[in-house]
Design goal:
It is a single chain. The protein has 288 residues and is of the alpha/beta class. The chain has helices at 3-19, 29-45, 60-66, 98-109, 125-135, 150-164, 183-195, 217-227, 267-275, and strands at residues 50-54, 75-79, 116-119, 139-144, 171-174, 199-204, 209-213, 244-246, 249-253. The chain has a single domain, classed as Vaccinia Virus protein VP39 (Rossmann fold, 3-Layer(aba) Sandwich). It has 9 helices and 9 strands. Strands 3-2-1-4-5-7-6-9-8 form a 9-stranded mixed beta sheet, sandwiched between helices. Bound molecules: S-adenosylmethionine. The site of S-adenosylmethionine has 22 residues, from helix 3.
């Protein structure tokens, strides 16, 4: 393990976080902590791959994600962009413009953005195919946060699956799941999970659902179990974490009031956890 690289990227994350303003994006502190945790697991143990967000809007979460980018990795910002360009061709809502996005990334990362912009309406099959061609299939971290209706979520999850297909240990994050405001996102996620059994949930926060490969669940789930232990729903009598099941896959769920602090964060603890085998208890009706 090259600890100097890990410390360097952690320092970059912390300085970016210091420049992240509330208006830069729609992400909770808890989800940012989970991002950091999973990106550290990948940094320590996993092959390089690419980073992507579908639906980048103001750019804050994308800037945080790419603060953990490794030199050999590419980063893709996929968006329809300029949703609110007026009939005169002038953007009348600066928030959705590539220029505004890039300015946010530049300020938070404190450097010139090197990401590739991928302009597409992902609900159009020819645009979706072009996205997959440009991004390729080796993303290690893919955040799905585009349009929130059923057509969007269906298309966007298919793109996420294609763009991670050739990385051995990818993480796919789906935003606004189980939200009363956006039931179509939940509908689309559950449909996707029932249609395939390769990407499965292992963690559900109050806002996002985190997916990994089916054969990776036991390895990945032990990190939130340890570092976010007080935030995981538990049996009050025994203190044991509840293992919930979504479409037959075991996962942990996080309380809305969970603290966004990763407890006892140290590289020694990561090494010890990596060396400790763990099996999530599964209900008899779990999908294999
Ligand atoms: C909820 S915002 C993303 C928020 C951002 N990820 C964050 O956390 O701050 C949704 C984004 O999806 C994009 N979007 C909406 N419909 C789209 C489509 N059909 N194709 C591509 N992007 C789309 C919008 O332009 C917008 O930037």
């Amino acid at each position: 393990m090259n600890t100097a690289h890990v410390h360097g990227r952690l320092a970059r994350w912390m300085s970016s976080l210091g420049r992240f303003a509330k208006d830069d994006g729609i992400i909770t502190e808890l989800d940012l902590a989970i991002y950091l945790l999973l990106l550290l697991v990948q940094e320590l143990h996993d092959e390089p791959g690419d980073l992507a967000e579908l639906g980048v809007f103001r750019g804050g979460p994308f800037a945080m994600l790419t603060s953990m980018q490794r030199p050999e990795e590419r980063a893709f910002a996929i968006d329809i962009f300029d949703l609110n360009v007026g009939p005169d061709g002038q953007a009348n809502g600066i928030w959705n413009s590539p220029e505004h996005f890039l300015a946010t990334v530049r300020r938070i990362s404190n450097q010139e953005p090197t990401c590739e912009l991928v302009r597409a309406n992902t609900t159009l099959p020819e645009h979706a195919a072009a996205v997959c061609r440009q991004v390729g299939s080796r993303c290690r971290f893919f955040h799905v946060d585009g349009g929130h209706n059923l057509a969007n979520i269906r298309a966007d999850l298919r793109i996420a699956a294609a763009c991670t297909a050739n990385h051995p240990t990818p993480i796919v994050v789906v935003d606004d799941t189980f939200s009363v405001q956006y039931p179509e996102v939940t509908d689309g996620l559950i449909e996707f999970l029932r249609l395939q059994n390769e990407l499965v949930p292992f963690l559900i926060s109050p806002v996002k659902t985190f997916l990994c490969r089916r054969n990776e669940v036991d390895r990945i789930a032990k990190y939130p179990l340890f570092f976010l232990k007080d935030g995981i729903y538990r049996d009050p009598a025994s203190g044991n974490p509840f293992v919930r099941h979504l479409t037959g896959s075991p996962c942990f769920t996080l309380r809305p009031e969970a603290t966004a602090t990763l407890q006892n964060l140290s590289l020694d603890v990561f090494a010890r956890l990596a060396a400790t085998p763990y099996n999530l208890p599964r209900s008899p009706e779990s999908r294999r």
